[in-house]
Amino acid sequence: MKITVNTDVCIGAAMCTGLSPQVFTLDEEGIVSLRETNPPEELRARIEQAVGFCPVAAIKIQD
Amino acid sequence: MVHRTPRRITIVGASIAGLRAAESLRRRGYDGALTLVGEEAITAYQRPALSKSYLTGDRQASDLVLPRQDLDADLRLSTRAVQLDTAARQVWLREDDGPPYPQPYDGLLIACGTRARRLPGGDLAGVHTLRTVADADALRADLRTGGPRVAIIGGGFIGQEVAATARGLGLDTTLIDPLPVPGARALGLRTGQVLAGLHTDHGTRLRMGCGVTGVEGGDRVTGVRLSDGGLVPADVVVVGIGVEPAADWLAGSGVLLDNGVRCRGNLAAYGAPGIAAAGDIACWDHPRLGRPVRIEHWENAVRQADTAAGTLLDGVSAPAYDTTTMFWSNLYDSRVQVVGHPGPDDTLEIVEGDPKTRRFVGIYRNDTGGPTGVLLFNMAHRLADYRGTGLDEGLPSSLAS
After folding, report:
1. Residues of chain A contacting B390 with CB distance shorter than 8 Å
2. In what residue span(s) does the Reductase C-terminal domain sit (chain B) (predicted)?
3. B390 at interface of A, judged by CB pairs closer than 8 A
């Protein structure tokens, strides 16, 4: 599973980092970055949840 | 009473709670008829942007629409619920100015949210509230015409965000609130002092401790009259004095209303069978706090959508909603994040950083010392440490006194 985040639109709502801290983190400016761009399949459910919670649709899963 | 799984579900509200509830129903295997009713012309969108980037940018409403899964649903947009007949199990709908028509249901999910509270007599041109895309379009047009002086009535999140945005456009901006500092209702006086400094450092004028007696003007607004007799001259006025549940269509239906739709712990509505509520309109029996709670934040809406969908399918035996959620506000160059739901009288204890630098973490405690929330002021990178390892886990036990 490959995922991308759009840091240009991220507003630092932190929905993703709460749901899947193994994959998402916020920097000092509060902008998302990825700990892993190819996370293991067992994290898929949480990452899909993060997609649904993101208020700016910044997260994409590219299978 | 034996619960019968519904086959005809109508969701009133196509914003984030309604849309995510529809997705949850399908994900849970519901394959019956599904009707999604939305008062605005678009399905769930980036509403938090309306007070910020949408006002300064050139995006169209359609650019804000959030991706949605294939729902196999009957979408009724620009349509609102006008009446509910729980005996006949029909909800009456109305598209724009068309005639009302009945929509039968055996499961009804109420997720139509709130509407902005208006100022009595505040109907002059140039006076705005901000809740919908149409509101934001009108405000955006006014903010960008002729460098207006802006007065904002109400120092809550919406008012503060619009103030920051107006200052970002270089406009003369005044924020008015009867409390001594902005943000005090949600975050208390100590945090409000930090917010006050943030606003004044960015050139927003504060008129705190001032009530409003009315707006002045002829064809258009010219100013805001204060309770101390003063006048704030303004070409644009934004009224940010809170929202109220959009529950008027439920009056007399049997559905119990008190600060929104009163719900059991699992979000099943009191007063009529086959009905659940989610999001800003749901006032539910909070299982841990032992009192009814209604929350007007994004994450709560998404989470309640899932719980309410489960309750519609499984009946009142479905599990209770007991989740500690977070909310945020972005003001100027600052990010404020709050985990939990502190009360205005809770004490803020600084545990990291310094409020003077506007980089700090504080823990709110109630009068018995119990933690009620964590405030991160420009400390987003520390969120995971205070949130624990997952959103579901609530406040970390290490904070308990």
Report:
1. 18-19, 21
2. 327-384
3. yes
Structure tokens at B29: 């295997």
Question: Which of B383, B386, B393 would best serve as a mutation to test chain A binding (most A beta carbons within 10 A)?
Answer: B383
Q: Shortest CA distance to B116 belongs to which of B58, B47, B218?
A: B47
pLDDT in tens, B318-328: 889 988 888 99
Answer yes or no: is B274 within a domain.
yes
- CATH assignment at residue A43: 3.30.70.20
Contact A21 B389 (CB under 8 A): yes
Distance of alpha carbon B279 from alpha carbon B302, whole angstroms: 7
For residue B357, give its domain range.
Answer: 333-399
Mean pLDDT by runs of 10 across the 63 residues of chain A is 94 90 91 94 93 94 87
Phi, psi at B96, each rounded to 5°: 45, -120
Q: Are residues B235 and B155 in the same domain?
A: yes
CATH of the domain at B16: 3.50.50.60
Match 């949840």 to its residue by tokens. Answer: A49
Render pLDDT for B71-127 as a digit per residue (tens, 0 to 9). 999 999 999 999 999 999 999 999 999 999 999 999 999 999 999 999 987 789 999
